[in-house]
Amino acid sequence: MGGLKKSYGQHLLVSPGVLKKIAQSLNLEEGDTVVEIGGGTGNLTRALLEYPINRLYVLELDPEMVKRLMSIEDNRLEVIEADASSFDFCSLGEEVKITGNLPYNVGSLIVENVVKHYRCISLGVFMLQKEVALKLCGKGEIGWLTVFLNTYYEVEYLMSVPPRFFIPPPKVDSGVIKLIRKENPPELNLENYKKFLTSIFSMRRKMLKKKLPEDTLTEAGIDPSLRVEQLTTEDFLRLYNVFNTSQKRRKIG
Ligand code: SAH
């Protein structure tokens, strides 16, 4: 197929089996509203429309692909020309399930934007670069986004997908993950939480006591000589809360 653009990360998923598996993993029910990110030529779009869902919004950045998607005739479908890394998912006015064979160059940015809208997104299934997919599941080397995501969602690795299932084949393997929103997600200022996480993940080989006051660490029940990769999501969250309270105390006192 000609005309595919590298700059938009266009690698079309052409395996009917994998498309079906992604759609199945969303546990779609009658009345559901679904958002697809990066519709492209509509392979996944068509697989999703097989289900008795209520509405499907497809976000696509490339105007040419937008045109192609608009030619799919189905009155449940609405195509939106928008950037999924900054789109306000809550503006759709209802709770949604979200999916997509994500453009790999901005995959992490899109996942970050999904977490920022966790209040309106109950479940997600994404295809990403395999290395990123594993990292987000806490397998391999974790990053700040692993913790940010796992604070709000249970993250499960569903399967690996080889390059030959795409046109054109990407240089890397791909992986599919599923996000299920946690029952009682914490209410945090997400900008501050992100700042906290990115700052303790910088210089990751250093012991935590080089980055945070020792009394903050001990108050959170964390050994100051540990390194970031030795903490769980619960540890980070507890640490963030203690850090916040001690910051406030310092400002007042
Ligand atoms: N879902 C299709 C295409 C996947 S390729 C399939 O599996 O066949 C990724 C798609 O995301 C491309 O169509 C690309 O144009 C689109 N895209 C790239 N950056 C985007 C962004 N920031 N927001 C929304 N869509 C984007």
From TrEMBL:
Entry keyword set: Cytoplasm, Methyltransferase, RNA-binding, rRNA processing, S-adenosyl-L-methionine, Transferase
E.C. number: 2.1.1.182
Binding site for S-adenosyl-L-methionine: H11, L13, G38, E60, D83, N101
GO molecular function term, any single one: RNA binding
Catalyzed reactions: adenosine(1518)/adenosine(1519) in 16S rRNA + 4 S-adenosyl-L-methionine = N(6)-dimethyladenosine(1518)/N(6)-dimethyladenosine(1519) in 16S rRNA + 4 S-adenosyl-L-homocysteine + 4 H(+)
Domain Ribosomal RNA adenine methylase transferase N-terminal: 18-183
Enzyme type, top EC level: transferase
PROSITE patterns: RRNA_A_DIMETH, SAM_RNA_A_N6_MT
Compartment(s): Cytoplasm
InterPro entries reported in the protein's UniProt record: KsgA/Erm, rRNA_Ade_diMease-like_C, rRNA_Ade_Mease_Trfase_CS, rRNA_Ade_methylase_Trfase_N, rRNA_adenine_dimethylase, SAM-dependent_MTases_sf
Gene Ontology cellular-component terms listed: cytosol
Function: Specifically dimethylates two adjacent adenosines (A1518 and A1519) in the loop of a conserved hairpin near the 3'-end of 16S rRNA in the 30S particle. May play a critical role in biogenesis of 30S subunits.
Similarity comment: Belongs to the class I-like SAM-binding methyltransferase superfamily. rRNA adenine N(6)-methyltransferase family. RsmA subfamily.
The protein, known as: Ribosomal RNA small subunit methyltransferase A
Species assigned in the record: Hydrogenivirga caldilitoris
Gene this chain is encoded by: rsmA
